[in-house]
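Work package 3, deliverable 3.1, input record:
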Amino acid sequence: MKILIADDEVMSRKMLQKTLERAGYEVTAVENGRLAADQLCPPDGPRLALLDWVMPELDGPGVCREVRQRKDQSYVYMVLLTSREAKEDVVAGLKSGADDYLTKPFDPEELKARLRTGLRILSLEDRLVEAREDMRFRATHDGLTALWNRGVILDLLGRELARSRREQVCTAILMCDLDHFKSVNDTYGHLAGDDVLRETAKRLVASVRSYDFVGRFGGEEFLVVLNNCNPAFAFARAEEIRKTIAQTPVPSATGLIPVSMSVGLLLSHDWGHLRVEELLPEADAALYAAKAAGRNCVKVASPRLSSPDSDSQDRESVRMRR
Amino acid sequence: MARPHYVEILGSARKKEKYMPKAIMDLTELLERVENDRELIRELLLIFKEEFPIHLRALRDAVDSMDGKRVAAEAHIMKGMLSNLAAGSAAGAAARLEQLGRSQEVSEFQEACASFESLSKKLLLHLDTCMAEVCG
């Protein structure tokens, strides 16, 4: 464990350093408060610190205040080490953000015991952060495929559309649907169906750029958002995705499962300022057209060819047969 | 040759207290504080011998100039050094000077400084003996 010692008095610094090195700490020692704050503020800095109260440049409480002002970084456990022991000094020290207070000259056993307390607090913080990150992941990702979930992918799409309008570039929406997925479940079982969904997710993610978005939209439906792309690129990428899914059967416990995917492609710059909820039915209509054209193909949503409302019943019947 | 056990060293230090009065420097306490690291004591004593006289001269200068802030600052540093060496009496005298400096009790400076210098002189005279006894 890394620990920072800040003390302007060389003998104290040396004694602390030796004591802590013997106890297995990786010690960095500095001689003033400014250097201490500079060491503690970066994200990968030490998370344990022993700070002398009276120091040049910046005193111990000043270091505590500076470190506590940082946001979104790991907690640093700070112990003020000083000969001051009046009650008001203790209060002032703790008020500045210090976690503990030790009087000099220090007793090595007490020092190590206090630092063990610090380590317990840091370990607790690590576990809490881990749990929070786990919950954050669960709240934003699909449990089966680990893709963005429906709510998040729609939110990301909304932001991306707004950005593309501001910057006058094109965003491509790919509404993707596995063909005959119901028969995969019926023939190979639902666990094999899950394998197909997971493998499809992997292939989709591998087919796009790191800054594009892939989400699970529904059962066997996926939504891919390609940022800042021209029509030729978007179509080529949609075709690539279709081929990637179709060319290799998915391995599962019950054998290789042949799969294919239909894709409805929509290019935002063809559609003016329509909102997400207005664009998605158009992308869905293109997907419907791909299904109607025999599946395993890509169809582009065009404002000129946009189906009137009377087609909605036909779309629904194709949806039932997907 | 094997190093003497910690308890033996502490025993030896206690015997030496007749030569090194506890009032000047408590070797037993010092050994405990450094967890019997005699090499560290040697290093500390060398640092002390080099640094302490510099601060002592700076303190004298501050006292003669009646500069309370500097008196407090120098006395604070020396109090820390002396405490680390378990030199309780001298550390106490430094603490008094620090307090006088902080409260600007200029009229007390000379007397307190003279007393501190006297204790420091005794301590400095004992350092070589101490190094020989503890570090061999």
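Confidence is low (pLDDT under 50) at residues 1-21 of chain B.
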